[in-house]
TrEMBL record:
Cellular component annotations (GO), alphabetically ordered: plasma membrane
Keywords of this entry: Cell membrane, Glycosyltransferase, Lipopolysaccharide biosynthesis, Membrane, Transferase, Transmembrane, Transmembrane helix
Organism: Aquicella lusitana
Chain ranges passing through the membrane: 233-254, 266-291
Top-rank taxon, per record: Bacteria
Pfam families noted in UniProt: Glycos_transf_2
Protein name, as recorded: Undecaprenyl-phosphate 4-deoxy-4-formamido-L-arabinose transferase
Any GO molecular function: undecaprenyl-phosphate 4-deoxy-4-formamido-L-arabinose transferase activity
Length: 335
C-alpha cells in the first residue's frame, strides 16, 4: 500500500456476519478494477455476532489495504464513520453501508464525479427494492425535510453511498460534534456538490439495525442539528393560540353580558385547556431536544471509545533526493 492511497472506503459494521464475506469479495474486486490505490476502513460498532472475528480475518488477508477499528461498544453509524474519517489517508473518501443494498460496483460513478471537480457527491437510490410502506415513508420524509431545510439539497438522505474530498472530511472530523448527520454536515462545507443515481438492491441477509426508535433519533439529529425550524413553528403556533384565546375571552365576556351566567360550556373549556396543555408539553419537548444537545456538547465527553485498531504501520522513508539534500546540509554545516 502506498503511504497515501487515492481512495479511502469507510464502512460502519454492526452485526453483519451474513454479508461480510460477500462484501469483501465484491468490494475488493470493484476497487481492483478501477486500477487506483485504495484502502478500506471498517469500523466494528459494538457487534455481538462473529463480525469482529471476520473483520480480523479480512485484515489478515489484505493487511496493506484493509484497516479495522474496534469500538468497545455501540456508538452509532455516524460515529463509526467519524472514527474512520479521523484516520483516512486517501484523497477521495467514500462511505457505504455493509449490507450491500448499495452495490460496491457503483463506486466508479462516484470516483468519476469527484474527478470532474466536485467536492461532495451525494446519491439517490434508483428503483429502490424496499417495501411499499417504507418507500412511502421515505418519500414523505424527504418532502418534509426539503420543506423544513431547503438549503440542504438532497433527493435521498437515506442513501449512505457518498463521496467526499479529503478537505471536506478533515473539516467534518475537526468539528468534534457528539451528534451529527454527516451528509448534511458535508453540504454545509461543500462549494461544488452534485448528485448521481445509483443502483439499489434488496438486503440479502441479516436485519436492519435501524428500529423505529433509532430512526426517530436519527431524524432528531438531522432536524435539531441543522435547523431551528421546529422552534420557529412553535413560536408561530404560540402566537396564533394567544390571538385565538384573546378572541375567545372577548366572546365569553360579551356572551355573559348578553345571555348571563351559564355552565353548559364547562366541558368545552376543559377540552380546550387539555389541547393547549398538550401543545405546551410538545413544545417543551422540542426545546428539550435542543437543550439536551447543547448539554451533550458542553460536557466534552469522548464521542466514541476505540478498543484497538488493526492496521499495518506506515513507514515514512525519505527519497534519495531528500537524503542527498540532507547530507549536503550536514556537510556544509560541518565545513
Amino acid at each position: 500500500m502506498s503511504q497515501n492511497p487515492y481512495i479511502s472506503i469507510v464502512i460502519p459494521v454492526h452485526n453483519e456476519q451474513e454479508v461480510l464475506e460477500e462484501l469483501y469479495t465484491r468490494l475488493t474486486q470493484s476497487l481492483d478494477a478501477l486500477g487506483k490505490s485504495y484502502e478500506i476502513i471498517l469500523t466494528n460498532d459494538g457487534s455481538t455476532d462473529r463480525s469482529s472475528e471476520m473483520l480480523r480475518a479480512m485484515h489478515a488477508r489484505r493487511p496493506d489495504q484493509i484497516r479495522v477499528i474496534e469500538f468497545n461498544g455501540n456508538f452509532g453509524q455516524h460515529m463509526a464513520i467519524m472514527a474512520g474519517f479521523e484516520r483516512v489517508r486517501g484523497q477521495i473518501v467514500i462511505t457505504m453501508d455493509a449490507d450491500l443494498q448499495n452495490p460496491p460496483e457503483e463506486i466508479g460513478k462516484l470516483v468519476a464525479a469527484m474527478e470532474r471537480g466536485h467536492d461532495v457527491v451525494n446519491t439517490y437510490r434508483q428503483d429502490r427494492q424496499d417495501s411499499w410502506w417504507r418507500l412511502q415513508v421515505s418519500k414523505w420524509h424527504n418532502r418534509v425535510r426539503a420543506w423544513m431545510m431547503p438549503k440542504l439539497k438532497m433527493k435521498d438522505e437515506g442513501c449512505m453511498l457518498r463521496a467526499y474530498s479529503r478537505s471536506i472530511v478533515d473539516l467534518m472530523a475537526a468539528t468534534g460534534e457528539s451528534t451529527t448527520f454527516i451528509p448534511a454536515l458535508a453540504l454545509t462545507y461543500a462549494s461544488n456538490p452534485t448528485e448521481v443515481g445509483v443502483a439499489h438492491a434488496e438486503r440479502s441477509a441479516g436485519t436492519s439495525s435501524y428500529n423505529f426508535y433509532k430512526l426517530l433519533r436519527y431524524n432528531f439529529d438531522l432536524v435539531t442539528g441543522f435547523s431551528v425550524f421546529p422552534l420557529q413553528v412553535f413560536t408561530m403556533i404560540g402566537l396564533l393560540i394567544s390571538l385565538c384565546s384573546f378572541a375567545f375571552v372577548v366572546f365569553l365576556v360579551l356572551r355573559r353580558l348578553i345571555v348571563g351566567p351559564e355552565v353548559e360550556g364547562v366541558f368545552t373549556l376543559f377540552a380546550i385547556m387539555f389541547f393547549l396543555c398538550g401543545i405546551v408539553l410538545f413544545g417543551l419537548g422540542i426545546v428539550g431536544e435542543y437543550i439536551g444537545r447543547i448539554y451533550q456538547e458542553v460536557r466534552k465527553r469522548p464521542r466514541f471509545v476505540i478498543r484497538h485498531v488493526l492496521e499495518r504501520p506506515v513507514e515514512i522513508t525519505a527519497s534519495r533526493e531528500e537524503d542527498e539534500a540532507y547530507l549536503s546540509r550536514v556537510s556544509a554545516s560541518e565545513g
